């Protein structure tokens, strides 16, 4: 299923980072799988299982790179199929600590342009930039905090969840 192309949904479409950001997702050019549960809320909260992969890009000439959501699968109750997260190739960047480059582990990431649709209920939310919490573990986790909203044009679209690194390489993220 392609429904949770978010997240990060869990986790997202993101805008470009500049060389001054010096984000480093290591190792470059690999895929890391994350699994967990996500709570999606438009009206009534629905808890679903979510699996997504994060792919790191090769380093640029400055030694920086980004990551993006490459694949996303939502399973669980039949209600989970009512939601979709279109355009899953969201870029992920470090939002804290911020530039100048420090080489310290990232604590927060930002997913840009996350969208959620609920075609059977006639609506959509986003695109919206969402903040994610990163913990390098072990195991590494990405958290969408409770209360995170994917708003315009429809208010009240909420998402939260915790996703654990479950497949692939050990990921290190610094700024």
Q: Given the helix and strand composition, which structural class is it? A: mainly beta
> Helical residue percent?
under 10%
End-to-end Cα distance, whole Å, is: 33 Å
Main beta sheet, described? Answer: 8 strands, antiparallel, barrel
Count of DSSP strands: 10
Amount of beta strand? over 45%
Strand line-up in the sheet with most strands? 2-3-4-5-6-7-8-9
Q: Any low-confidence stretches, pLDDT <50, length ≥5? A: 1-20
Radius of gyration: 15 Å
Could you spell the SSE succession in H and E letters?
A: EEEEEEEEEE
Overall mean pLDDT stands at: 81
What sort of overall outline do the alpha carbons produce when their principal axes are compared? globular
How would you describe this protein?
This protein has 175 residues and is an all-beta fold. The protein has one domain (24-174). The protein has no helices and 10 strands. The strands form 2 sheets. It has an 8-stranded antiparallel barrel. Strands 1-10 form a two-stranded antiparallel ribbon. The protein is globular, with a radius of gyration of 15 Å. The protein starts with 23 loop residues before the first strand and ends with a strand. Mean pLDDT is 81; it is low at 1-20.
